[in-house]
Recover the amino acids of this structure.
């Protein structure tokens, strides 16, 4: 029983947290690719930017002496999302739109987004310094412990309050996105434009408006993902830059341009990573009794050492590109 | 007054002009058919009207005003609609969603128009929930036309609606176009099946090198020995 609890704590919970973060990031990447046809490299830094916006807002709340029943990071989230959405619109207007107007190739757009990456990171370092910060400086992290002694476990299932909230927020956002894409006029127009941009224009769809909506969604979801990442780990200038690869892998594995694919891809990559670095000895220890005398399981039986976690996403990405380049759901091709 | 009138339209994609003075006039009751050899500027003419390429000379008058270089999102609301030749349906969207996209510029209730389209293409009503990409070529063409009709156009432009269809579907599509025309929608279309299309055209235009060579009713053009010899394969 303890082994199962250990597995739940280490794989199920952290995999779901990581999956939520990857999924929310990958949705933005995949939508931008579907509508604007370029790989938005600066997406990770939009996440980081969102996290810092929330951090400032949370600090503001603390300074004003506002005490919230929920972790401040979540309370300020809606405001941070709005600010992040406006910043995303501004970044598009300032950097990508002028290039689009001149008919820039996707490669040019990609390079421009690398420029935006460097700029955002530089600005964050300029304002906040390069150190690590935490959302929990001012408030404790509540941990729920679910007692498992009734099932013969000696250890509890432990899950933090932010983690519970992350699941709830992610689920709500995914449902909202689904309803938007399938029910609303603009959401359908977004799918139409991702499907066939020329025909969308011919149909009289206001493509500039669809582009703006795309940035609003991508920017605000990136903000949520960034805040979650900061709540789960810590806040630093290269916070999300380090997970750009798994996020792009998630978008590609799910099928570029396909929002649901990005969600599936996000959780798939997250669980693959979590399972790969999981120490299986902890679960298989009871088998020690079955082994012949003098033999025991090694102390660490992880498939991949933790510091090489990133290679998991990379391997999945390469295999996907070799076996099924269009992703799980048939994505758009360039 | 004609529904649409092109006077000496010159235009292209930025380099040398492809259209070198195209003249055309269509009434709302007309079915206009543009024929001509490859590279004559047939499709280009439709794209020029629809603002998809740059018009550098001449005027395009629609409903009394010059619409040259207006963009589709301005043209669709005033009654122009265009069915491109290829990739003319949203393959991942359902049939019904395709139709809804055709009505994107309308803010009023378009349920009646949708019923009207389903009445015209009953097979689409059966497949309304199916992705358009799963339909046959002929059915896709119906979705494409249905999408274009959802904005309640007064002029429907079609780029080779019969391309790639089996002869049975070609006749069906032509019959549908005549039916749409009878409902009060002017038609301007480009066709490869020149003789077949001119047979029901009230206005026929033979283009070559981006200019009008012959203009007349469909029957007149078919009867003209010179047109027949040079453009209709004898």
């Amino acid at each position: 029983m303890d082994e199962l609890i250990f597995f739940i704590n280490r794989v199920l919970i952290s995999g779901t947290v990581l999956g939520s973060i990857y999924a929310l990031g990958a949705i933005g990447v995949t939508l931008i690719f579907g509508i604007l046809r370029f790989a938005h490299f600066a997406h990770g830094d939009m996440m980081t930017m969102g996290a810092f916006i929330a951090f400032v807002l949370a600090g503001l709340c603390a300074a004003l002496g506002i005490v919230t029943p929920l972790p401040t990071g979540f309370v300020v989230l809606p405001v941070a999302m709005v600010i992040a959405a406006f910043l995303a619109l501004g970044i598009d207007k300032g950097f990508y739109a002028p290039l689009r107007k001149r008919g820039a190739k996707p490669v040019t757009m990609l390079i421009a987004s690398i420029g935006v990456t460097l700029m955002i990171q530089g600005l964050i370092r300029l304002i906040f310094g390069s150190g690590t910060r935490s959302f929990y400086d001012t408030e404790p992290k509540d941990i729920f412990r679910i007692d498992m002694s009734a099932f013969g476990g000696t250890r509890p299932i432990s899950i933090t309050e932010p983690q519970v909230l992350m699941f709830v927020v992610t689920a709500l956002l995914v449902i909202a996105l689904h309803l938007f894409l399938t029910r609303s006029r603009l959401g359908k127009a977004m799918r139409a434009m991702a499907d066939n941009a020329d025909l969308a224009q011919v149909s009289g769809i206001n493509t500039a408006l669809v582009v703006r909506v795309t940035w609003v969604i991508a920017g605000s979801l990136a903000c949520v993902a960034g805040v979650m990442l900061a709540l789960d780990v810590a806040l630093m200038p290269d916070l999300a830059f380090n997970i750009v690869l798994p996020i792009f892998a998630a978008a590609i594995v799910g099928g570029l341009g396909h929002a649901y694919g990005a969600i599936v891809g996000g959780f798939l990559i997250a669980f693959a990573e979590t399972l790969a670095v999981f120490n299986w000895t902890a679960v298989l220890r009871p088998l020690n009794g079955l082994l012949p005398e003098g033999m025991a399981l090694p102390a660490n039986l992880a498939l991949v050492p933790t510091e090489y976690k990133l290679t998991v996403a990379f391997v999945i990405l390469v295999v996907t590109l070799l076996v099924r380049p269009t992703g799980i759901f048939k994505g758009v091709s360039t | 007054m004609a529904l649409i009138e092109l006077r000496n339209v010159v235009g292209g994609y930025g380099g040398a002009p492809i259209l070198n003075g195209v003249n055309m006039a269509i009434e709302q009751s007309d079915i206009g058919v543009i024929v001509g050899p490859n590279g004559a500027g047939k499709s280009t003419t439709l794209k020029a009207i629809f603002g998809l390429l740059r018009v550098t000379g001449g005027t395009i008058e629609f409903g009394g005003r010059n619409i040259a270089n207006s963009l589709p999102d301005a043209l669709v609301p005033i009654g122009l609609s265009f069915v491109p030749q290829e990739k003319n349906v949203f393959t991942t969207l359902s049939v019904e969603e395709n139709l809804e996209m055709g009505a994107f510029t309308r803010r009023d209730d378009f349920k009646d128009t949708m019923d009207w389209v389903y009445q015209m293409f009953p097979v689409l009503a059966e497949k309304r929930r199916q992705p358009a990409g799963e339909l046959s070529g002929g059915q896709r063409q119906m979705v494409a036309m249905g999408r274009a009709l959802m904005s309640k156009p007064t002029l429907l432009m079609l780029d080779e609606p019969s391309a790639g269809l089996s002869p049975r579907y070609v006749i069906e599509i032509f019959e549908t176009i005549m039916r749409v025309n009878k409902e009060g929608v002017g038609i301007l279309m480009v066709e490869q099946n020149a003789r077949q299309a001119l047979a029901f055209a009230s206005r026929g235009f033979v283009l070559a090198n981006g200019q009008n060579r012959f203009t007349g009713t469909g029957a007149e053009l078919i009867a003209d020995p010179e047109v027949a010899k040079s453009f209709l394969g004898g």
Notes: Residues 255 and 296 of chain A are 43 Å apart (CA to CA).
